[in-house]
Amino acid sequence: SPPPPVPRPSDLIPQRILPSLQPKSANAEFEAQVKAAVASLLADFSRMFGSTPLDEAGDAAAREQRRRQLLYDLNNSGAYFSLKEKLKKAVVRIVRESFHKTDESHMPDGAEADQLYSELYVHLVRLAHMALHDIFYPKPQAEQGTLAMRSACGLG
Is the pTM of this model over 0.70? Predict the structure, then answer.
């Protein structure tokens, strides 16, 4: 009888999913979309007004004029619509995963709908605040490694 076939390396080593391609949770996707939106808005602001801080922009009327000009540009360029659509997809996924609402025909009405919207609003604002905090107050690299290690060990 012939000898048994020699296994190939691909038979012995399980195929892995690359970290960047792993599906994110709905919350992580929303946070990533918020971070991308902030980066886009900051780039647009810098492109329009340079690096002048808001405090040096002058009085409140000048700041209001800059804000209106930025909003006008975002609406006319389609950037606002694009950001809104990306966030909408993430919000729909959160509603489906976190609130177990999959279809509009089963949506509650009246007081139940108000309660759902309130919970969703609080949840989304909390996620947005966490994303903004990560952007504007990043943790030092050494601390991030320590926190990851602690959470991996079940300590944090």
Answer: no
